[in-house]
Amino acid sequence: MLVLAFDTATPAVTAALHDGERVLAESTTVDARRHGELLVPTIERVLAEAGAALADVTTVVAGSGPGPYTGLRVGLVTAQALAASLGVPVYGVCTLDALAYGTGLSEPFLVATDARRKEVFWGRYADARTRLSGPAVDKPQDLPADLPLAGAGARMYAEVVGAARLLDVPEFPFAGALAALAAEQLAGSGAADVAEVVASGTHPVLSAPRPVYLRRPDAQEPAAPKKVSR
Amino acid sequence: MRDEPLVLGIETSCDETGVGIVRGHTLLANTIASSVEEHARFGGVVPEVASRAHLEAMTPTIERALEQADLRLSDIDAVAVTAGPGLAGALLVGVAAAKAYALGLGVPLYGVNHLAAHVAVDQLEHGALPKPCIALLVSGGHSSLLLVPDVAREVVSLGSTVDDAAGEAFDKVARVLGLPFPGGPYIDRAARDGSGTAVAFPRGKLDDGTLDFSFSGLKTAVARWVEAREMAGETIHVPDVAASFQEAVVDVLTRKALEACRRYGVSDLLIGGGVAANSRLRALAQERCDAAGVRLRVPRPGLCTDNGAMVAALGSDLVAAGVTPSLLDIPADSSLPITTVHV
Questions:
Q1: Mean per-residue pLDDT for B134-140?
Q2: In chain B, what residues touch A44 (CB-CB under 8 Å)?
Q3: Sorting pLDDT into bands at 50, 70 and 90, what band is B252?
Q4: How many CB atoms neighbour CB B202 within 10 A?
């Protein structure tokens, strides 16, 4: 097994390779405005670092969001096109799940990432592997007040959510965690079986590589044309 | 010709997800998924709606193109993509996809200029371009006059709109006349039953000595004319207004295009872009080219509107010219200048 995983749903452009046992390489650049430029070089870097060829990749996994849409789409379309070129399966994983997995926590917490417009994308977890609710998008002051928080979206609003609630854990969904989470799900079952469960929409972690937007496009239907006569 | 490379072209600069496959100047596939119906109720293209639709449509449109050409992805020798100009978020979906196909297939990538691709596409229908030629590109997003010494290497801007694009004026006037979006085809159709000389609408910048255009004043003039009649309780004869507006647009476009030919001593004119599908523009351009001894080339309507074949066509020229491929970290550039044919 060689899982190539990447996520572009947060300011972190991150890619990793996982061989089913461990993360072979991970590379991350935090730059909220250059996902499109950074992603392929990041993928090339982890391949080089792991001494692997693209042709060795058996599964492509991408964070499916939620996250700022322009960056999110870069990761998903890259995953779809790369998997089609290589002839291998491609899956999406909720970006918040990767962030949660990366915390390694075994008690309840919330994760939050920046959703812009003074809102956060968030989810509630029982432990690092178990999402209880979400993903959802809300104002930081409206998050449940009773749980510690992980993620850069929580830190951004430390004053609102309370700095004491912030956990000292990785604040982005690093691709190493994403790859490890996916590899854990892929291990022990045949590729065809996994694909079938994902296609039926019932897999607990893996999904089709489609974006989770949570908001409709901002667009107003126009009123009647305004008068131009003076 | 069998040894010419197979080039896959991807276009996502606006609301059409276009995929084309060419070998040299032979068109093998041209498939399009359009989100135009999703934009219609907003009266214009909504960038976020377009970007979402591109992501949904990208790999299925590639699959359809391969099927149409009876090819497999592994047959592709090079990937070309519109790197700009266009809607930033929309461009980015195509550029990211193209990089991934190039990386995954191990083939070169060519990021190309959308406007130059509109010029290059004509070769799929009418063969190699004369060097030089003048190109008039008119669409919902662009109105440009170009001098094209060599579409793979050098394109010079002679003039462009200072305000609205011609196609944008069609959309806005259509709204004033109660016609659907996109306005071009509806105005063209309505105008067939009207008179182009019924109303003398203004010709912006016609005699200002430049090769620039202006359509904003014309659009407002039409709106004022219609409002005045409506306030007076008169019935508007839509075909006459449509025909007179259309005449004003195509009159200026063709006069300036032929002025460009005269000024630069060029005897070949090419018209491209979505507005080139307009029947009156085609007819008047032909008439005026015949009178001036200029050869006119207009691709068929399906190659004039945004499509992937045009990107593949330009990519094919770049491969043939031995141009260095693009790096896999190129940005999508929403305001890519026409002087940059490839990035």
A1: 95
A2: 103, 328
A3: very high
A4: 14
Q: Which of A144, A147, A141, A146 is nearest to A160 (CA)?
A: A141
Q: Is the domain of B94 the same as that of B120? A: yes
Count of domains observed in chain B = 2
Looking at residue B194, which CATH number applies to its domain? 3.30.420.40
Statement to judge: residues B93 and B197 lie in one domain: no
How far is residue B185's CA from residue B180's CA, in Å, rounded to a whole number? 9
B331 in a structural domain: no
Q: How confident is the model at residue A58 (pLDDT cuts 50, 70, 90)?
A: very high
Residues B110 and B192 both lie in one domain:
no
- Tell me which chain A residues have a C-beta less than 8 angstroms from the C-beta of B176: 225
Do B288 and B304 meet the contact criterion of CB atoms below 8 Å apart?
no
Its ipTM equals 0.96
Report which DSSP code applies to B13. S
pTM: 0.95
Q: How far apart are CA A61 and CA B318, in angstroms?
A: 33
CA A73/CA A217 separation, integer angstroms: 14
Task: Say whether both B227 and B197 belong to one domain.
Answer: yes
Partnered with residue B118 across adjacent β-strands are none
Widest CA span of chain A, in angstroms? Answer: 75
Interface test with B, best of A27, A40, A57 (most B CBs within 10 A): A40
- Look at B220 and A228 and tell me if their CB atoms are within 8 Å: yes
Residue whose entry in the numeric block shows the structure tokens 């067939």: B192
Domain limits for position B21:
6-125+303-321
